[in-house]
Design goal:
Strand content: 35-45%
Shape: globular
Largest sheet: 7 strands, mixed
Number of helices: 9
Oligomer: single chain
Number of strands: 13
Order of helices and strands: HEEHHHEHEHEEHEHEEEEHEE
Helix content: 25-40%
Length: about 280
């Protein structure tokens, strides 16, 4: 790779394009440049693997998460020893808890930094991997799969987000469960806080939010020790109907629909969550 190709390649990671081919004729005229859109994986990996991400969301209630998992296990009657796939596992706190409940658990995440942290908790029948959730991990192997706390809807195109469903369906055994815990987009849009400033452990955060082009977007500015860092986050505002269609397209049937972690009935106007529980046909 020559200097100019290297320059283009390095800047492509910042601006969201990738130079696939860059060549010059013998008289140094440009002969071929092929540029394609780069999926936002690098940006997501940088943010989700950042210490600032975990600090900003440190308020999330671990006990509530455990209660949700306990409720699901009891409601779905998942047997001890069952194999569970945790898609978008972050640093593994839910995978670890599921493993403690007696399951064989595989967690994967796009962020290598997150998986390094998760692997520090070494236990029997608990496995962590760096993996893109759009590609199947292990075919027809798992009794259940979970995607928790809005770890879905990051990609621009529906076809890319649908690949997540396809890969999860492919990983499940017949009659295997898939639990998708997503935001209630209608309520989220209505209660959006446009801007807020937070100070957490001596670090200043400014978070700006907006709803545009079928996404809820966040721009996060971090100030620490005189330095400033910027990150972005976005989630597609999928409705119940669209998500149910994703299940159907991938040969899964939505059996249950809940609106909170106590497994209450879903109400589009008032529910805090949109939790869909489907089964592979």
């Amino acid at each position: 790779m020559d200097f100019f190709s290297e320059l283009w390649h390095s800047r492509s990671r910042e601006f969201g394009v990738r130079v696939v081919l860059f060549s010059l004729t013998p008289n140094s005229r440009l002969r071929t440049v092929k540029i394609e859109t780069l999926a936002p994986l690098k940006r997501m990996e940088d943010w989700f693997g950042s210490e600032y991400y975990w600090l900003l969301y440190s308020h999330r209630d671990c006990e509530e998460a455990k209660l949700f998992i306990d409720n699901l296990i009891a409601f779905l009657a998942i047997s001890p020893g069952s194999k569970i796939l945790d898609c978008g596992c972050g640093r593994g706190r839910h995978s670890i808890y599921l493993n403690e409940k007696g399951f064989e658990v595989t967690g994967f995440d796009i962020s290598e930094k997150n998986i390094i942290v998760a692997k520090k908790d070494k236990k029997e029948n608990l496995y962590f991997h760096v993996h893109d959730m759009r590609t199947i991990f292990r075919a027809n192997y798992y009794d259940a799969a979970v995607n928790l706390f809005t770890s879905f809807g990051y990609f621009e195109n529906d076809s890319e987000n649908n690949k997540v469903f396809k890969s999860i369906a492919g990983a499940l055994k017949k009659n295997g469960w898939f639990v998708l815990d997503f935001m209630n987009a209608e309520k989220e849009r209505g209660g959006l806080i446009p801007s807020e400033k937070l100070r957490i452990d001596g670090i200043d955060f400014e978070v700006k939010r907006c709803s545009e082009n079928n996404f809820i977007r966040k721009e996060i500015s971090v100030s620490v020790q005189g330095k400033k860092y910027s990150f972005s986050e976005r989630v597609k505002t999928y409705t119940r109907t669209v998500l149910e269609n994703f299940f159907t397209q991938n040969k899964m049937e939505v059996i249950h629909l809940f609106g909170d972690y106590q497994l209450s009935k879903f109400n589009e106007a008032s529910s805090g969550r949109l939790i869909l529980v489907g089964r592979k046909i």
